[in-house]
Amino acid sequence: MEGxxxxxxxxxxxxxxxxLEAGMDRREFLRTLVTGGYAxxxxxxLGVDDFLGADDGEVPIVTALVRSDPDxxxxxxxxxxxxxxxxxxxxxxxxxxxxxxxxxxFTGYLGSAVVPGSYKSGAATVSVGISxxxxxxxxxxxxxxxxxxxxxxxxxxxxxxxxxxxxxxPRTVTSVxxxxxxxxxxxxxxxxxxxxxxxxxxxxxxxxxxVTAEHAFEGGADPHGDQLSLPVxxxxxxxxxxxxxxxxxxxxxxxxxxxxxxxxxxIDTPSPTRVRxxxxxxxxxxxxxxxxxxxxxxxMTGHTEGKIQGVDAVTCFTDDFCRHGQIRWGxxxxxxxxxxxxxxxxxxxxxxxxxxxxAGFNNARTWWPGQSYVWGVSAYKLTESYGYHF
Length: 390
What we know:
alpha+beta, five-stranded antiparallel β-sheet, about 20% helix
């Protein structure tokens, strides 16, 4: 029965537009999408015109949240593109299977990620890291959905994280004459160096916040207690602000400015950039399906780029809990200590020159044989959980 579910779902999605009626109200439209197999979180962003504009066998997806006014961070609007209905159906089922794996938490489960296939393939894979017992995993979860396969990677010895700066010198600002501080440069806690992200916005309080990795604060960031500072070439560090919110599971700390220095939506990249918005979960899946690459600028390793390896990932390699909504991309050489807090991004194909879309944070890397990637929480996961956006 489950073997044909993806095919049926793809067919229903492809024909939704044939059932739309003029004058359909919003509630009825959403009900039509959800009963047709569309995820409610995505359905709420779509409108009738999105479906009427799709060809037979295609459905619209929301790929990014983008500012209609580049200077107004609250002017977010959805950007859509059409994709094959069968591909969408397979990817959505892969997300469902990935979530089932994480919630079941079988002994030996170390994490997993969704790897969408190409649009032509109309398929998706869930890559699973385990410490043993492949047969029991395959017997339980294999073959649940048509066009969704499982790829097992046995990881026998994770070992300890090697902490080293590998001879890199941190990228610091030359002065603070400009009150807007860009992302991609070094910032300091009382214990270590990390990378400053671009401005993070909290719609609930309408705050513009500095942001970096929470693990840069030894013992965890203390809201309204711990400070973040900015090393400046040839002088003492400048104060940036005080931790406003700490999220250890997502591994981010948001810092409220306490001086004239303010977070900027610019990243200190090789060429001028400006954050225009952020990618959705399906936006990341779309990029992976098309073989696109992400970029990052870290305080230690500087500018690197690499292909996306998995989306909606779950990582259980560190601490005593699993982290959800992660993105895997690039290779382990793209990150070293001090780069944590940097963001991965993609050039906005519809924006002005230099506009970019944020994919997520870079806060960890593989250190065991057999796998090589950087990971961190995706921007869409922070929006879903806390409302924050770029």
